[in-house]
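Please fill in the sequence for the structure shown.

STRUCTURE ENCODING:
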């Protein structure tokens, strides 16, 4: 995080707005903030921390931060901080507080707003993810970026567990916590191995001998099915010819009936066509002019009406304006003399407040005398209650020493509960196993109803049928495509005529025209056959779903039964171990009745103790009540005294402000009389002010309004003349058009246009009828020519249809037998290959399971994470020693002991180690500085930031001159490492050596002021 600019106002001692531009400070690499104690140096760092995280080092959430952070002379405070994050992205955080103008202690804390600099402007962000943007939590921010006063040694003195947790957060060491991943991987691998083993068991009956037997039987059945198919195709060809002839005769009768109905509608359509032509002509010639004429006439009427109204309005406004101007002139003289009246009114109100303050002062004196007696009574009651508490406390301690320890009873009770729980679990598992056995038997019965040849090869059997149906669908679809191509070619050939171009090749010469037969019967037969095969496919899908569901359910039930069996064994072993863990001598082992009696006795003792404790707490509450009354009454007496002094000052101040009126005379008057005088003067002031305001407002309103209406009258008169000329021109043009079209009056045109015909719909209806009429007429002619000289024998058609149905059933049965055998063979081949593949997988997963078990033992209990954390910490210690050795002239060194706690090696005492707590204040600063710089360097490396910022708020006052020189040299060299260091100090010697610094000066009137020193 690199700061850019900080703006603060109304924060702690900063009363007026102060802006710190960090640009020049950052360029210097090393800068300082100097000032006297209490000038507001540390408040700058706290403003940055609070602006970012909403946390304060001085105040917690219970301290009413908003009120206590705001300057007491300010009604508003703000923090506006701009900075770069570790990705060199520019952000801005804005926070603002406002004080309630009526209640001084009520300070509202506004919502913080986070912005990002995008496309040359500040864009507000929806989420306040400071930790994600800065890359550090608030606690780690204080340890690595801005180290506030009193927190510099925190990292050095953290406990081992806290320091390890901090390292994990900063360096994201949780990524090395692989315990859950290896545990999950072990579980999934074991589960996968069990599944493979189960699948291998299901293929135990798949052998090469079984596959050879199925193939021989399939060859015999295929030959039989082929012979039946040849006979079926021969008979089907005769049937399709008869069926096509029947359909042609049916279509001819339907088309003749349709043609008769169309001939009846022909006269009506012709009349509709005539009306449509006339409507289109009139609409094109007259519609636009008629609409324009109507709209112009409407505008003329509207303008004439408005002209009449506006003329009347001008007359009224002129009268009102003259009257208001005359009245305003008379009121202006009275309005000029109101200032003296207001000044006397203000002094009258001050006299009233002085009278009220005198009355309040008298009441306070009476309250003070009465409060003294309350304090004396409360102190007596407090002493009596304290004596009661002491006596009851002795009795209560004696009873508690005799009672049995409740932790022992809880442990015994937990033993009985666990015993009951394990026993109940065993019974539950046994009941579950019985239910699972019944479910498995029921599933086996449902599988038997499927009538599979081999329940172990059911998938292959279904797959054979599926492949057979897919092949038959492909074959039939190929036949359909061939038939349709032949049908289309025959249609093209019938439409060829000498001299006309061919629609396919474009040639006008046709030497060899195709002579094709009618294939419509064959197409219909193939479509029917295709639908039947697809129906079989759908039924096969339903059958497969049912089979899959049954076999999956059985597999799941068997797995559940095995798991339940393992659970039963585990529960029984757990019960034996639990019984061996009974270690108490208060009762006989497993004697629950004896334990219940013991619990009842203990409960009685506890009830008696509880009763005494309630009495004890009641007396304690009584003591606190009386103590509170004493404190309360004493505080109220102090407040009364303070309030009385304040009233004396208020009366004196207000007397000095009364200069126009005789104050003593008015003070002797009764308050109601003064009130009447105040009301009388206020009413006169209000009346004159209101009258002046109303008349001025009316004058300002009427003047532009009158001018506006007068202008409007002139404009309307001009527009009316133009509109009437347009009306005259339109009438002339319409007369010319009527004469040109042979019409006598415009009413004829209006009558036709009022029909409001839908031209597009009417034209489409007429065209649709004409096309339909011609199509039906041509269809009747074509069918009559085609069927000339032909007849249809219904009896012959019925006999042939019965023969086809019988042959089709025989072919179907033979085909199903062949398909079933083919499916069995394919399933067996596939299962045999799968069995070999599963055996290889089983061996691989068994080896993988053993390796993962070894990894799981390594990563359990976060051991690996703690190991990595200790490595990071030791590297950090080595980096810190590079500076610590120089700061101490190689006299001291920092190291980690076996508990990951920091220790000091003292080379002046034979290199022996000692606690870091034995260091002096100056030495603690040196080692803390070295650690903080090393930690900041590690964070910089982690975030891959080009620069890093580091702020220190203490420690230089503990160093001697030589140490200060070494520290200053160390900090100066950090600039070469792209480090920016800011320090806060009151040591003048350091300020003189800084290339640039800020000075904080505290002014009694303006508060703290920031000045830049170059």
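FILLED IN BY: designer on duty
SEQUENCE:
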């Amino acid at each position: 995080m690199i700061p850019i600019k900080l703006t603060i106002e109304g924060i702690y001692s900063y009363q007026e707005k102060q802006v710190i531009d960090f640009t020049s400070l950052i360029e210097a690499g090393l800068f300082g903030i100097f000032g006297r104690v209490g000038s507001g140096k540390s408040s700058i760092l706290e403003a940055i921390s609070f602006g970012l995280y909403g946390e304060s080092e001085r105040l917690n959430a219970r301290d009413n931060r908003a009120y206590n952070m705001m300057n007491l002379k300010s009604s508003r405070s703000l923090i506006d901080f701009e900075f770069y994050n570790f990705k060199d992205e520019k952000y801005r955080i804005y926070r603002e507080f406002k004080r309630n103008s009526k209640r001084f202690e009520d300070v509202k804390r506004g919502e913080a707003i986070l912005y990002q600099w995008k496309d040359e402007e500040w864009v507000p962000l929806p989420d306040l993810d400071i930790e994600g943007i800065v890359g550090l939590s608030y606690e780690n921010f204080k340890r690595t970026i801005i180290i506030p006063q009193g927190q510099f040694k925190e990292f050095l003195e953290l406990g081992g567990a806290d320091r390890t947790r901090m390292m994990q957060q900063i360096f994201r060491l949780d990524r090395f916590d692989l315990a859950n991943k290896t545990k999950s991987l072990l579980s999934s691998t074991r589960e996968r191995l069990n599944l493979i083993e189960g699948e291998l068991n299901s293929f135990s009956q798949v052998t090469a001998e079984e596959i050879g037997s199925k193939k021989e039987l399939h060859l015999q059945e295929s030959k039989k099915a082929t012979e039946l198919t040849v006979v079926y195709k021969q008979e089907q060809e005769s049937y399709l010819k008869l069926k096509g002839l029947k359909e042609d005769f049916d279509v001819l009768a339907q088309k003749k009936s349709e043609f008769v109905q169309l001939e009846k509608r022909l006269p009506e359509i012709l009349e509709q066509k005539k009306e449509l032509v006339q409507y289109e002509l009139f609409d094109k010639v007259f519609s636009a002019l008629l609409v324009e004429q109507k709209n112009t006439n409407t505008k003329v009427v509207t303008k004439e009406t408005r002209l009449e109204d506006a003329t009347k309005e001008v007359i009224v406004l002129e009268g009102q304006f003259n009257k208001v101007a005359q009245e305003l002139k008379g009121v202006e003289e009275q309005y000029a003399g109101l200032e003296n009246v207001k000044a006397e009114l203000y002094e009258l109100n001050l006299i009233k407040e002085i009278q009220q303050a005198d009355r309040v002062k008298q009441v306070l004196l009476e309250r003070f005398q009465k409060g003294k007696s309350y304090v004396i009574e409360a102190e007596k009651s407090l002493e009596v209650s304290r004596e009661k508490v002491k006596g009851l406390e002795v009795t209560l301690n004696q009873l508690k020493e005799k009672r049995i320890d409740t932790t022992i009873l809880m442990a015994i009770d937990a033993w009985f509960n666990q015993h009951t729980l394990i026993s109940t679990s065993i019974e539950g598992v046994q009941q579950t196993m019985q239910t699972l056995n019944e479910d498995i038997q029921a599933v086996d019965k449902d599988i038997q109803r499927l009538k599979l040849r081999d329940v172990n090869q059911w998938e292959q059997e279904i797959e054979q049928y599926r492949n057979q149906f897919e092949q038959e669908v492909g074959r039939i679809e190929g036949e359909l495509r061939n038939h349709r191509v032949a049908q289309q070619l025959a249609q093209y050939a019938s439409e060829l005529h000498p001299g006309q171009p061919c629609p396919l090749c474009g040639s006008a010469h046709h030497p060899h025209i195709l002579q094709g037969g009618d294939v419509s019967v064959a197409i219909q037969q193939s479509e029917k056959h295709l639908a039947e095969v697809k129906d079989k496919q759908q039924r096969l899908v339903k059958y497969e779903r049912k089979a899959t569901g049954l076999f999956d359910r059985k597999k799941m039930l068997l797995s559940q039964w095995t798991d339940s069996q393992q659970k039963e064994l585990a529960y029984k072993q757990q019960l034996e171990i639990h019984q061996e863990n009974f270690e108490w001598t208060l009762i006989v082992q497993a004697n629950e009745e004896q334990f219940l009696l013991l619990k009842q006795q203990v409960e009685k003792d506890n009830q008696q103790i509880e009763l005494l404790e309630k009495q004890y707490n009641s007396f304690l509450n009584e003591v606190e009540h009386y103590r509170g009354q004493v404190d309360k009454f004493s505080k109220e007496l102090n407040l009364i005294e303070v309030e009385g002094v304040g009233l004396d000052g208020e009366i004196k101040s207000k007397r000095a402000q009364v200069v126009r009126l005789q104050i003593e005379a008015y003070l002797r008057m009764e308050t109601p009389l003064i009130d009447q005088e105040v009301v009388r003067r206020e009413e006169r002031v209000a009346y004159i002010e209101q009258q002046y305001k109303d008349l001025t407002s009316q004058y300002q309103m009427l003047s532009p309004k009158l001018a506006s209406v007068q202008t409007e009258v002139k404009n309307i008169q001009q527009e009316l003349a133009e509109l009437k000329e347009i009306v005259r021109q339109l009438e002339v043009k319409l007369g010319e058009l009527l004469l040109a079209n042979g019409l006598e009056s415009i009413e004829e045109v209006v009558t036709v246009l009022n029909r409001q015909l839908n031209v597009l719909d009417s034209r489409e209806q007429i065209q649709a009828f004409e096309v339909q009429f011609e199509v039906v007429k041509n269809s009747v002619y074509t069918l009559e020519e085609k069927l000339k000289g032909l007849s249809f024998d219904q009896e012959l058609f019925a006999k042939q249809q019965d023969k086809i149905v019988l042959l089709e059933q025989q072919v179907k049965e033979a085909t199903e037998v062949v398909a079933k055998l083919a499916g069995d063979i394919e399933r067996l081949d596939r299962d045999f290959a799968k069995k070999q593949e599963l055996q290889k997988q089983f061996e691989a997963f068994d080896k993988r399971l053993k390796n993962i078990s070894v990894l799981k033992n390594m990563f359990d209990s976060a051991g690996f994470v703690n190991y990595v954390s200790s490595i990071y910490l030791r590297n950090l210690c080595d980096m810190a020693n590079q500076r610590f050795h120089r700061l101490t002239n190689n006299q001291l060194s920092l190291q980690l002991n076996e508990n990951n706690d920091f220790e000091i090696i003292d080379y002046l005492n034979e290199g022996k180690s000692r606690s870091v707590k034995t260091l002096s204040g100056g030495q603690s600063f040196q080692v803390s500085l070295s650690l903080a710089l090393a930690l900041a360097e590690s964070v910089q490396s982690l975030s891959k930031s080009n620069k890093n910022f580091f702020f220190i708020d203490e420690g230089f006052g503990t160093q001697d001159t030589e140490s200060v020189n070494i520290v200053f040299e160390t900090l100066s060299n950090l600039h070469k490492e792209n480090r920016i260091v800011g320090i806060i100090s009151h040591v003048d010697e350091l300020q003189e050596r800084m290339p640039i610094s800020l000075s904080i000066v505290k002014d009694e009137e303006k508060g703290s002021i920031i000045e830049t020193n170059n």
